[in-house]
Design brief:
This protein is of the alpha/beta class and about 280 residues long. The protein contains 12 helices and 8 strands. The longest helix has 29 residues, at about 170-200. The model has no long low-confidence stretch (mean pLDDT about 95).
Length: about 280
């Protein structure tokens, strides 16, 4: 089997490392709209060959669409136009509903599997690719009933090869839940970084005084805006809803501090500690 990877960044590159190591496919092709990314991916062995977009589509059995969701929305229908009945297309984007809806009536819709591997880091580019990024993580497959069962099974076997837990979900439900557990985390991190940079003008103090808590909370603020702006915009309604809830919780903390209400602060923190039952 030949896998063609469109978008040679962290996710596509990390998948290539483990799928190659696990002998899931025989050959890996790649393309990227940034020449440096394509050249680097081939030089460090993520892919065997880089080539133009149209040629990659023609030569690949499984096409992995690993680009920002705004680009995927533009490209997916065109890719389905170009493939034959035996090829499978899978995207790995962080939002699913609009992408899925965009090809709902496409004649080759069954050749497409909507998916999202729940893994990543704050780094980007082919040089950020690492082994075992996906091990133990959830691999989401959305609206599986709209895809050919053989295509779904191929994607499932790909996630099995990456040692992921496969979960089936409706695209709309996926976007709601990722707004809660992923998208809001990034907005919080971006906002925290902006706040600290605004208040602390001495960068050396940030470096010297930053504890593990700040470093872990602000880590996501290093994430690439080219990836995250389209995610926020495509999932805007769900992100706005969770932001409203988050701002309400912030206001509760603010009110308790203004009123010197230690007991209320303790209740809020104790209530938040329930997360320990879920995240160990």
């Amino acid at each position: 089997m030949t896998i063609g990877i469109i978008g040679l960044g962290l996710i596509g590159g990390s998948m290539a490392i483990d799928l190659r190591r696990n002998k899931f496919a025989d050959k890996f092709l790649g393309c990227d709209n940034i020449d440096l990314n394509a050249m680097t991916a081939q030089r460090i062995g993520l892919v065997d060959e880089v080539m133009p977009y149209e040629e990659l589509i023609k030569k690949s059995d499984l096409i992995l669409l690993a680009v920002p969701v705004s680009a995927a929305l533009r490209m997916l229908s065109d890719i389905l136009d170009k493939i034959n009945d035996n090829q499978v297309v899978v995207d790995i984007c962080s939002t699913k509903e609009k992408l899925n809806d965009s090809v709902h009536y496409h004649p080759r819709r069954k050749n497409y599997v909507a998916s999202h591997p729940m893994a990543g880091t704050e780094f980007s580019g082919p040089w950020a690719a690492i082994p075992n990024l996906f091990a133990g993580r959830a691999g989401i497959i959305c609206n599986a009933e709209d895809s050919d069962p053989k295509a779904v099974e191929l994607v499932r076997s790909m996630y099995d090869s990456l040692n992921m837990r496969v979960i089936y979900m409706r695209a709309a439900h996926h976007d709601v839940h990722t707004a809660y557990v992923s998208h809001i985390s990034h907005i919080i991190s971006f906002a925290l970084a902006l706040t600290v940079l605004d208040k602390e003008k001495n960068e050396k103090n940030i470096f010297d005084l930053a504890s593990g808590g700040f470093a872990s909370t602000a880590r996501l603020a290093k994430s690439n805006p080219e990836m995250w702006v389209p995610i926020f915009m495509q999932n805007k309604e769900n992100v706005l809803s969770v932001l409203d809830s988050y701002m309400d919780k912030l206001q509760q903390f603010k009110n308790a501090l203004e009123e010197n209400d230690e007991s209320r602060l303790k209740v809020l923190i104790d209530d938040a500690n329930r997360i320990k039952r879920i995240l160990r």
